[in-house]
Amino acid sequence: MKTNYDAIIVGGGPSGATSAVLLAQAGWKVAVVEKAVFPRRKVCGEFISGTTWPLLRQLGVAGPLMDIAGPVVRRVGVYSGDRMVTAQLAVPTGSTNDGGRAVGREHLDTLLLARAAEVGADVWQPYALASFVEHGDGYTCNIRDQHTRAEQALSSRLIIAAHGSWEPGPLPTQDFRRPQRASDLFGFKAHFLNAALPPDLMPLLAFPGGYGGMVHSDGGRVSLSCCIRRDQLDKCRRRYPQANAGTAVLAHIKTSCQGAANALSSATADGAWLSSGPLHTGIRSFGRGGIFTVGNAAAEAHPIVAEGISMAVQSAFLLSEQLNAWRMRGDPALSTPQGEKIRHDYEMAWRRNFSQRIRFTALYAHLFMRPMTSRMVTGWLERFPRLLTEGARWSGKAEPLHGARTLDPARH
Predict the structure, then answer these.
(1) Which residues have a Cβ under 8 Å from the Cβ of 259 and sit 6 or more positions away?
(2) 306: enclosing H helix or E strand
(3) In the predicted model, is pLDDT for residue 412 greater than 50?
(4) Using CA atoms, how far apart are residues 354 and 339, in angstroms rounded to an integer?
(5) 10 Å Cβ neighbour count for 184?
(6) 317-342-134 Cα angle (round to 5)
(7) What is the pTM of this model?
């Protein structure tokens, strides 16, 4: 048996669930295919910029998230070697809320996907995409129950790829194969209790071969997330052979970053380390035919500026804007020229909002992963802390999403 939909969304994380809410509210018949059981922990910096909270309010989830989120972040910093520099965080343009906060993905993802179901989307969970077939009027997706292995066929005119950036799969947007490289980045994350981190501060941690960040999240926890090069990770594991990978990375951070060592000197881990990778940073693809990408499936910024969640949610708003405009015109089918026009307009809006962010985050990452340039940049920041404020602004923390009138956060 086959179930027909207007759109099938592969992935129920922030970008997929956001797309589902916005399309279902506009009258689309939507299916979300998510292979994991929620709530689930995930490698992520957990920070949600002040520019994104108004969008979460439009989605109907800001209230319950703010009830559990960590304190408002008002300062950013850099911990590099024995240096600790802080500066005020720029206030978002036209902001009607009081700033960015962090919240665990186990809460964010669960609430967003539940909201999608509440407004009418069919949530297939835990189902994985087993295969898909392209035909004249769209696609047929065969999905498989992760527990019973039973299969179901779903058909649609279009697919939204919201599957992230590192796990392979049958979609053409899931081809992440490439040779191993010493510069490959792997992500790690853990939570800590009783950390001595000021509640309003989110510092960047610079250490040889990697970078990370800390922020107060929900439940009184401090979230530490980091990225480290493959060659440096191998060195850590050889240096601390009795420790697991996450603990070895933490030891490396503490020995090369005094600010992190101070903040965690009396802290205790809350749960196990998580890891993922390798990461695939940069712009990849906006899809082809009737397949459109959002979130990390389209592009991934270096996590050094903690903008991953915001970019995921905001990219879904931009694509949904284009798709809903097409639907309102009453076009009966998604022809090739129409699909390419939607993709072109979406890509242009995406690049307007995020291209600069991608470039700046790559620059920041390369500067702070190298001890010599990290010391040099931190020295400049000590002399001119305003540069740190501006760097956070350039990363996207102070600019609202530029889309249609209905997407301007300053109006909500």
Answers:
(1) 77, 79, 83, 84, 203, 205
(2) none
(3) no
(4) 22
(5) 17
(6) 105
(7) 0.93
* Amino acid identity at 44: C
Task: Sort 335 into a burial class: Cβ within 10 Å, 0-12 / 13-18 / 19+.
Answer: exposed
The candidate with the shortest Cα–Cα distance to 69, out of 104, 118, 97, 21, is: 104
- Pull the structure tokens for residue 82: 């024995």
Token digits of residue 370: 């190298």
Q: Poorest-confidence range of 29-33, 138-142, 177-181, 192-196?
A: 177-181
Longest pairwise C-alpha distance within the chain: 67
Helix (H, G, I), strand (E, B) or coil at 403: coil
Q: Are 374 and 67 in contact (CB under 8 A)?
A: no
Determine the average pLDDT of the residues in 28-47.
95
14: nearest Cα among 55, 50, 72, 70? 55
Rounded to whole angstroms, how far apart are CA atoms 137 and 266?
60
Q: How many beta carbons lie within 10 A of that of residue 223, not counting itself?
A: 27
Take residue 54 and report the two structure tokens written for it. 């108004």
DSSP 8-state assignment for residue 295: G
Measured between alpha carbons, how far is 265 from 141 in angstroms, rounded to an integer? 50
* CB distance 363 to 317 below 8 Å: no
